[in-house]
Specification:
Layout lengths: L5 H13 L9 H10 L3 H13 L6 H7 L6 H13 L1 H4 L3 H4 L3 H8 L10 H13 L1 H4 L3 H4 L10 H8 L3 H4 L2 H13 L10 E6 L2 E2 L8 E5 L4 E5 L10 E5 L2 E5 L12 E5 L4 E5 L10 E5 L2 E5 L11 E5 L4 E5 L10 E5 L2 E5 L11 E5 L4 E5 L10 E5 L2 E5 L11 E5 L4 E5 L10 E5 L2 E5 L11 E5 L4 E4 L7 E2 L2 E6 L11
Helix pairs in contact: 1-2, 2-3, 4-5
């Protein structure tokens, strides 16, 4: 048997007798080829699982190219998807520089290529050509048209593209770039890696809505997804396993409910799942370790300290230890394997306190209190910290925000929002913290703004077409039908 080493043959024979094998990064390539040669389907799958678990920017192109020659379509597709979704890191790796011009073209032409700025695509092409300039300069004609120049600022094109030697020495490339600048010919935007959904709530006239709004950060635009689902407000939303779960909240009669519905993003259909143990309006919801946690809220007569979590694989809610305080209208997030919940209202006063839940011990621990009382606050994990934004302190509607460091149990103040708000949606998309809607103290607002930790500034994003209060937001990613949630 040519090209079959004795150590590899030993592993194959051992597997046929025992059904197990020690797969390592040093033997997986040869083991895969040997398993394919002997048509050991189970061993091929074991190797594929190893490849999938170890996918990283340094090896994803190699795995993608390697699997072209074998019938493992699922792994081949996952490797290519990894290349597209981690392109900005992959483009700096050695494997990228070894690609053929056609392979580079296949990658950068995709709508699903994930880049924060289109300039990253242009700069990747320049690096690829510069690796072997004499052999590759002629490929500029093939690659530059795949860059969506109209997505770039004109200033960047003039300063970095038109002045580049590959463009100045190529009349066709010059003409193409000039045409984009002069006529602003619009290329189709790339699909975002993630979509922000704003679900339910009360509109400006205090009427419940069941419309889901989807925000495409790449084009800074909202679109509506009409769903035939009873509306709710003051609920929680969570994305898990391809579904968006709507948890608790108030119905049209403003009665707190314990129902949980999930929205299948592939089929755009709703399904009822197991109800919670408690009715919870103004509930706080987050996801941790593949489970959905629901904490506090109000059952219509009592403000709750109880909490529970949902296991989707068993369709079952299980109760956990109660919090130290009753918290309605609080907000929570998961960070480093724990849950942090901040602020809220206990029936008498807006709360300044915060606490942390450890699922391994089933215990809540009070942490340092915030600098302000905050009910209707937005809490989110961002940049390895817990951010508490906005809310109502009992007197004023707040635009201030503060940040908790779990390593030293301290809060610090941060840059304030442009608009005061409470009972709004909050999420992190493309490494930016977005706040959506809410009540400004005078009116229900449609305003949306985002915070960028790199600039330490808040900026305006596209407003929703209608104001909303008591909505809930979540971020969805990896959808096979992502185009259905973006602007055509």
């Amino acid at each position: 048997m040519p090209d079959m080493s004795s150590d590899m043959m030993e592993l194959i024979i051992e597997f046929t007798y025992t059904g197990s094998v020690n797969v390592t990064e040093y033997n997986v390539w040869r083991l895969f080829m040997a398993a394919d040669y002997f048509n050991l389907v189970e061993l091929v799958q074991i190797c594929c699982n190893f490849f999938e678990k170890t996918l990283c920017p340094d090896n994803c192109i190699g795995i993608w190219q390697f699997t072209k020659n074998y019938h493992v379509p699922e792994l081949h597709l996952k490797a290519f998807h990894y290349v597209l979704s981690h392109f900005e890191e992959v483009a700096f790796c050695k494997e990228f520089l070894q690609l053929s011009a056609q392979e580079v073209s296949d990658i950068i032409s995709r709508d699903t290529l994930t880049v924060r700025q289109e300039a990253a695509v242009f700069e990747a092409i320049i690096r690829w050509i510069a690796h072997e300039p004499q052999e590759r300069e002629g490929d500029a004609d093939l690659l530059l048209p795949k860059v969506r120049l109209s997505m770039m600022p004109t200033e960047y094109i003039q300063r970095h593209v038109l002045s580049n030697k590959l463009v100045t020495d190529n009349l066709r490339c010059q003409a193409m770039v000039s045409e984009v600048i002069e006529d602003r010919i619009h290329a189709r935007p790339r699909l975002p890696s993630a979509i922000l959904l704003a679900i339910g709530g009360l509109s400006s006239g205090m009427a419940l809505t069941n419309v889901i709004k989807a925000f495409d950060v790449n084009v800074n635009h909202w679109m509506s997804i009409n769903v035939s689902e009873p509306p709710r407000s003051h609920h929680g939303a969570a994305y898990l396993g391809g579904y968006v779960y709507c948890v608790g909240g108030f119905d049209q009669a403003f009665i707190a409910n314990n129902s949980v519905r999930r929205f299948d993003l592939s089929t755009q259909t709703w399904q009822e799942v197991a109800p919670m143990h408690s009715h919870r309006g103004n509930v706080s919801v987050t996801v941790l370790n593949g489970c959905i946690y629901a904490m506090g809220g109000s059952d219509g007569s009592t403000h709750l300290s109880s909490a529970e979590f949902y296991r989707p694989e068993t369709n079952q809610w299980l109760q956990i230890a109660p919090m130290h305080e009753m918290r309605s209208d609080a907000s929570c997030t998961a960070l480093n394997g724990k849950i942090y919940i901040c602020g809220g209202f206990d029936g008498n006063v807006e709360l300044q306190t915060a606490e942390c839940y450890n699922p391994e011990t089933n215990q809540w621990t009070l942490i340092s209190p915030m600098s302000s009382r905050r009910s209707g606050v937005g809490v989110i994990a961002y940049d390895h910290h817990v951010y508490a934004v906005g809310g109502f302190d009992g007197t004023d509607y707040l635009q201030t925000a503060e940040v908790y460091n779990p390593h030293n149990n301290t809060w610090r103040n941060m840059t304030s929002m442009m608009t005061p708000r409470c009972n709004f949606g909050i999420e992190v998309v493309e490494d930016r913290l977005f706040v959506v809607g809410g009540f400004s103290g005078f009116t229900t607002t449609s305003n949306v703004e985002y915070y960028d930790r790199e600039t330490n500034e808040w900026s305006q994003a596209c407003d929703m077409d209608v104001g909303r209060i008591a909505l809930s937001c979540c971020v969805v990613s990896g959808l096979p039908n992502m185009a259905e949630y973006t602007i055509p």
